[in-house]
Amino acid sequence: MSSPFGSAPVSGLVTVDRAVSELRRGLDVVVRDDDGHVLRVAAAEYATPDRMAGFAAPGARLLLTNRRAGTLKLRPLVGDPVALPLAGPLDAATIASLADPTADLDLPLRGPFSVLRRAPQAAEFAAVKLMKLARLLPAALAVDAAAADDGLLAVPAAEITAYDLAAARGLRIVSDARVPLADAEQSRIIGFRPPDGGIEHLAILIGDPPRHLPVLGRLHSECFTGDLLGSLKCDCGEQLRGAIRAIAEAGGGVLLYLAQEGRGIGLMNKLKAYRLQDQGFDTVEANERLGFDPDERVFQPAAEMLRLLGFDAVRLLTNNPEKVAGLTASGINVVERVPHAFPANNHNEFYLATKRAKSGHLL
Ligand SMILES: Nc1nc2c(ncn2[C@@H]2O[C@H](COP(=O)(O)OP(=O)(O)OP(=O)(O)O)[C@@H](O)[C@H]2O)c(=O)[nH]1
Ligand SMILES: [Zn+2]
Q1: Is the bond preceding residue 195 a cis peptide, omega within 30 degrees?
Q2: What's the pLDDT tens digit per position in 89-117?
Q3: Which domain-ending residue is among 100, 134, 161?
Q4: Using a 6 Å cutoff on CB, does residue 354 contact ligand 1?
Q5: pLDDT tens digits for range 141-185
Q6: Residue 150 appears among annotated catalytic residues
Q7: Per residue in 84-106, is it b (16+ CB within 10 Å) or e — as a string?
Q8: How many whole angstroms from 30 Cα to the centroid of ligand 2?
Q9: Catalytic member of 178, 297, 315, 337
Q10: Domain that holds residue 148
Q11: From 67's CA, which of 2, 26, 289, 291 has a CA 20 to 30 Å away?
């Protein structure tokens, strides 16, 4: 199979994309790795007695990320993910509650749980990565399966681990329209789509910046609550509009609007993180309790979009050194970091302080 845009092979991407959609609907898929492991897999957050029927065989297990297992004080943490045999106290309700930390403080007495003392399999790692790609909680039910299991969709582990990079490399421009903005009348919105029709990103091109000079640019990760609703919990809305103003005032540049809601964990999971923040955890701890890394974003899509727009060097509006490092590692020359901070309010003061203290932000 080839992409409608060119000759890049897309069958692996499409299989992963289909698996994502099956899992989100509560269906099982099969993940197989190059070492011969074949797993039937389901999203742990959807566990119900009915859905557990396929996971009754010996060897069935719950896969949790090392971070989630650490929060639950499971030992030993032999690798990532950690596997808990589905036995004894692991009924459907317990499984769902081990996946979802929002009720952790109400359920202090679960367990004790045992953990398999062996290194994780590539298929197990890929199964959890698939949950992240599906923007579900990163916890999976798994059981050893036959190669062709009940006509379930089978997806190679290698395609799952290669997905982010392959999707980024295959991005193509699919639309380009003039859209005058209140703060930047000379704007165009350019749409990018990966060859499997997966996650799309946008660029706002302001003016007509010369391609042979470093472009004034901003990578903005989507934030529904801040960008659209004016949430005071973060600084995203101000950073978005502030960047558009700054770029227009400078005579032109580009803002990439990246579909990486909640630093890549998705809106539903970000709302769960907000709930944990109301229990007293900071933005980094909340991500970790959910089982995610503090920042799950990748930078290859942004680098590829800049290249497709004709830019290979950028003066980057950011306070986040990880963005500078990430873009640089993806082949873009970041010639300057341009600070991009706005005054705090009562609600986001602690959020900004945490970014400074824990995420290395230069605010
Ligand atoms: N998971 C999670 N994501 C958040 C939270 N608050 C904001 N976000 C997301 O964070 C992203 C914005 O990233 P920031 O860390 O604020 O800033 P940055 O983009 O890394 O760095 P700057 O370039 O300096 O702004 C958006 O996708 C928001 O949805 C939170 O508490 N938890
Ligand atoms: Zn935000």
Answers
A1: no
A2: 789 999 999 999 998 888 877 778 899 99
A3: 161
A4: no
A5: 999 998 666 789 999 999 999 999 999 999 999 999 999 999 999
A6: no
A7: bebeeebebebbbbbbbbbebee
A8: 35
A9: 297
A10: 11-161
A11: 26
